[in-house]
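Q: Give me the 3D complex with glutamine.
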Amino acid sequence: MNKEKEEEKKVSNCKYIFVVGGVISGVGKGVAASSIGRILSDRDQRVTSIKIDPYINIDAGTMNPTEHGEVFVLDDGYECDQDMGNYERFLGTTLTNTNYMTTGRVYRTVIEKERNLEYNGKCVEVVPHIPLEVIRRIEEARLKAGANVVIIEIGGTVGEYQNMLFLEAARMMKIKHQRDVFFVMVSYLPIPSMVGEMKTKPTQYAVRTLNASGIQPDIIIARSKLPLDDRRKEKISMFCNIPQDRVISAPDEDSIYDIPLNFEKEGLSNIICETMGLTCSIETNEDAAKWAKFAKSTHTYKGTVNIAVVGKYFNTGDFTLSDSYLSVIEAVKYSAYTSGVKAVLTWISSMDFEKDPKSIKKLAKYDGIIVPGGFGSRGIEGILMTVEYARKNKIPYFGLCYGMQMMVIEYARNILKLKDANTREVNPESKNLVIDVMEDQKKKIEDKNLGGSMRLGAYPAVLVKGSIAYNNYQTGEISERHRHRYEVNNDYREKLEKAGLVFSGFSPDGKLCEIAELPLSKHPFFLGTQFHPEFKARPLSPHPLFTAFIKACIKTKKK
Ligand code: GLN
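A: Here is the predicted complex, encoded as structure tokens.
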């Protein structure tokens, strides 16, 4: 078989599902794409997911989380969109940077290839060369994952200038692979309060706009506050040129984990299999049962725990943007639900404590406190007040990255009496930099080489026997994802340990402190990690440290 035929054969065994959004942004494309992945892998398909983001940024690492949501970090250190976290969590897989692309990344490759004379003297044009590079990347991700189903979410909303070249790539794939390429439009149906009726017209327009790109959706997922009635299904079917049974009702749900189950109530995986000619096992596998059990636990919990999340980045105008910490929220939920409780999170700006120090007492009513990751000096003193309060009042405390560094600073200030203890990030003039810049970061900061240059991604760590960390991981070797430039200064390690702080996890060469904790005899749970455990928490395998924290919160509440 010649090479081209071989390629054809590989491709013809694979199905590509493009997911696009209509009418509004934030319609739930990511969760819809993840749920489709879930129901197909429950029927033994080898699914991988790709996210396309239309912005120029090479990765999401340089973007402000209040504007773009959380920066999610992959094992390989790539900083990407929070939707990648949803894919990993829903599919239970580990993705790589090949599963993610931005306009900037695609253009950069094309320009580099042109500079390397890889286009054989041709004029390199936006069309077809940009869409062809998009297609090459989709193929690369599929081969790397060994998948037979690839779900590709195109960011943005249909009709935007920004994502047109990606739609063009999808259209070009459709010409070549016909039945193997499938389009899902996730659209929004408003119910304006003055008419009180669900309206289909915006969806009709969105489909027409998509049609103008040469693409006809095969399925419409109709997102709305309420389920779709037959009248609306008929209308969408008639005006959008789609059989009625391919208009899927997707009402708002309190729990996103019900969405794969709801899709199956509408027969979605069968519809996809029939339309694409995909042979799926009729029985669902073990994971499907586990998922259903987890989804149920989000409704059948017996009590609640109240957790304060203290940090910055929470406010944008009049709204609180908890999306910046999506993985933290998810990790807490998984551990809470599987422990039989619901975690109620309250977002508290640490700056409030700086303005009114007495208000720190309001933390007394919480069963646990989380200080998540962060950057810069804003709100730091308020966070240190929070750590001190949690330590002295024995409220379970979990510090994630910056939250761990703050633990160390607070301990140095209040127990070692190093009053000016700080991190170089906040005050380089401090005489006691208990948190200092990592050696290999110095030159990067000097050269302003700041994009994608932190200590990023999965690194191994070894745990100290008998520690809280060791006992909960139930192993001495772990691998966790990182995103930081600063670390515990080893010059202070011994002094801190002598004063009672336990470092219970280290990089294998012993140079970097990965976990700090106080023994259970001194505090019900006071632990911080230099890494971000939240990035590896999954609904079907909650993170052991989050679970330990939640269990401590439950105990505290009972008292
Ligand atoms: N700003 C700190 C550092 O760079 C912590 C980073 C974080 O919380 N992700 O080391």
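A quick observation: Residues 373-375, 401-402, 425, 483-486 surround glutamine (CB under 6 Å).
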